[in-house]
Input
Amino acid sequence: MLDTSSWSDLEKCATGLLSAAERRRSERFRFEQDRCTYVIAHALWRVLLGMATETLPDRVSLQFLPGGQPQLPGTGLTTSLSHSGPMALMAVGSVRALGIDIERCPTRVAMFELLRVICSDEERDILQAMPPERREWALLQLWTRKEAVLKAWGTGLGQAPSSFSALPGALVVPPKGVDGEPCLTMELALPEGQAGALAVSLDVLRHTLHILA
Output
């Protein structure tokens, strides 16, 4: 995990580590802050992947499927990136599938207005039975777990979040028609105001969180 705003003075240098496609995408951002977040996050992601693959960051073969899922062909590694505001999370591992997500709290949207979009019937019943003061955080944690799982499956929001349950500590099995790995989800201990989750296939042995100052 890292705060991209702490690295903003290196944006020009960081741009040199990106692929041509990444540079083109960065140029399409309307707001300077959003562009800087994207450039720094992707550059440091490439640094991480370069360390994992013993490759120079600008030569990492980072490819993307049509749904946006990142691929590292020929390495036996899987990877994922998420950012919310200036904060970024990235993951890499020698597992069949993984996904990661980070969200800020409070959110920019009224999460409970999206309850039926996000939650399965089981999850909705659990949330509605909670004390009101606990619901927003619990729903945000649920959302990060679901986003991480959808990234691990490679579907993104093309698969309805309400079509499956992602309860804490429970195995998340792909719904019918989804060609994805069963996943475990892990809520990450992030600084106050940030919710994050990792979804990973069952061949995981351990995971470690590093916060980059």
Notes: Residues 2-201 form a domain with the Ribosomal Protein L22; Chain A fold (CATH 3.90.470.20). The chain has six helices and eight strands. The radius of gyration is 17 Å. Strands lie at 2-3, 63-64, 70-71, 78-84, 87-93, 98-104, 183-188, 194-201.
